[in-house]
Amino acid sequence: IRVGGEWRRWQEGRVMVFDDSFEHEVKNDGDDTRVVLLVRYWHPALSTQASRDTALAQIQDDLAAAQRLQLLPPLAPSFHEPSPALEGQLLGHGGGVCPGCGALEGAELALDEKNGCVTLCCCCCGHVTK
Fold it and tell me: Rounded to an integer, what distance in angstroms lies between the CA atom of residue 40 and that of residue 52?
């Protein structure tokens, strides 16, 4: 296993613990199956509930930003970020159903340059989510 710039080898009967927040990679050149027990625990610097809550909120924000980039390309600085309603529709939280008429006809994304925002226009009734 490589963690950061350091390589280590597993030794039978020994335990290895590492911080996977560092860049790491694993190779299994043998014929035996490699089994990993993944245990998550709080970093010692996150000793209070408030610090954990702050860290979780940051993780959730980072995850939302990563998911947003999978759905929408980065927007020009003149465009507003998508609204929570639009993000919810893109992430499928509405089940793909048009909020206007309840149909499952699909929708098209568009850039509204006049208002500097992304819109989702439903193909069924023309309902627009900004």
Answer: 13
